[in-house]
Amino acid sequence: MKINKRSIVVSVLLSLFTLGIYQLYWYYLLVKSERAIELRKNSFVGELLCLYLVPFYNVYWWFTRGKIVKEKLLSAGQSNVTSNEVLFLVLGIFRLDIVSMAIMQSDFNAISSDAYYKIRKELDDDFTPVEPDPQYILQVNALKKYFPIKGGFFSRTVGNVKAVDGVTFNLKRGTTMGLVGESGCGKTTAGRTILRLSGEKTGGQVLFNGQEVYDLNRKEMRDLRTKMQIIFQDPFSSLSPRLPVSEIIGEAVREHKIVPKEEYNDYIDKVMDNCGLQPFHKDRYPHEFSGGQRQRICIARALALNPEFIVCDEPVSALDVSIQAQIINLLKELQEKYQLTYLFISHDLSVVEHISDTVGVMYLGSLVEYGATEDIFKNPLHPYTKALFSAIPVPDPTAKMNRIVLEGSIPSPANPPAGCKFHTRCANCMERCKHEAPIQREIEPGHYVVCHLYDDVKEESAPVKEKPVTVKEEPAPVNEEPKTDVEEAEGTV
Ligand code: SF4
């Protein structure tokens, strides 16, 4: 084979041009690929791999072709192979851009999938998948949602805000689970992650009717959206001020073709009637309603899609007490009528006690106690739950309140304490709590707690020896409303 200098120069120029296009295509793949996005989001290694190492790897891959080309020429009977010949042929591979891109893509998938599962495994070292159980409409297993903290010259991930960090619970059809905890503990993020409204999860499982929500493609997810709805805390900001009520409720009904066109108007009337709204409200705008009525519109909007599961994200926190009762009763009525399942997020313990069948208590992104409402309220086990419930005002001016005062401030979810996350504020803290994270244990049937105090409790609920806690005796506030606000309580707990 005769190769002159001119053909090498032309070949180099052509190859550089193709290489440029190829690199652009490569970065397009990186930007578009969900897996690459997740890798970059989840770890520094993933980011490094995707953005910096893989392109180098590809360059390396191309240049190893030289060795193969040389071997092929020798095995074909050529006695002497010059470096010019090898270079020309390798550059020839560069010029086959369509073929090379196809090879490249398969390489990329192979690399990223290995790295992906490796990183996944590192992130989910405490994760054991659960099998779908038909008795539950929703199974949440070790759910994690981290938000990356970016920093440095390359804006790489330098840490994570662990907003939801291993939440596990199951929810039966037609029941309500209350999720309580102080502000910033991750209640809302947990709800949004279950609904797949916060991008990709970081780890764990969310099984809705036995189907992993995060495995669904775009179309399947769109269909599932009608089955899983959300009611937001602030009804005013969650309604478009430019749309009349009929449009707010009906827009998604039309979009998802819930009813035939000819039945549309009657259907909207029926949904509004179910939620306590009158037909003449249809042409009014959100600013013309009171807070309670606006929340009814939000409920009607969710109900219109025939949902099976609704996340109620503090739906009554922005309302006064009398309206709260009306909305709570409405939610209960609708639940009985349509067999709805609720995840009721709130910091108002009285409301949660009233509406919920089961209760989960969250602290710093994790569920510390979970069980039937009666068990949790009558026999709270976790030191944090006890402190929380001790702040419930008693509507009796002569009653003494035993407030458990938690010392220290809430740690940052970006840098949670080692071992038990609550150990920095726990009056019962033991040495092992500082190093060893407790696991969730079933203390009584259906009553789970995450605390080392209960490590020795096996089948039956045995009394637990506790260190004395800091107890403040103070008279119950006389003029306080019969309403428990955890946030308020946390200021004094
Ligand atoms: S594990 Fe230890 S620090 Fe954590 S709540 Fe239980 S006793 Fe307190």
What's this entry about, in short?
With 493 residues, the chain is of the alpha/beta class. The chain has 15 helices and 14 strands. An 8-stranded mixed β-sheet has the order 6-7-8-3-9-10-13-12, sandwiched between helices. The protein has a 4-stranded antiparallel β-sheet with strand order 2-1-4-5. Strands 11-14 form a two-stranded antiparallel ribbon.
Describe the protein in words.
The chain has helices at 5-32, 34-42, 44-75, 83-95, 97-123, 187-194, 218-225, 245-255, 264-274, 291-303, 321-338, 349-355, 373-378, 383-389, 486-492, and strands at 136-151, 156-172, 176-180, 203-208, 211-212, 228-231, 309-313, 341-345, 358-363, 366-372, 400-404, 440-444, 447-450, 471-475. The chain is α/β, with parallel strands linked by helices. The strands form three sheets. The chain has an eight-stranded mixed β-sheet, sandwiched between helices. Helix 2 (34-42) packs across helix 3 and helix 3 (44-75) crosses helix 5 (97-123). The termini are far apart. Mean pLDDT is 78; it is low at 95-123 and 459-493. It binds iron/sulfur cluster. The site of iron/sulfur cluster has 14 residues, from loops. Iron/sulfur cluster is lined by residues 382-383, 420, 422-423, 426, 428-430, 433, 438, 451-453.
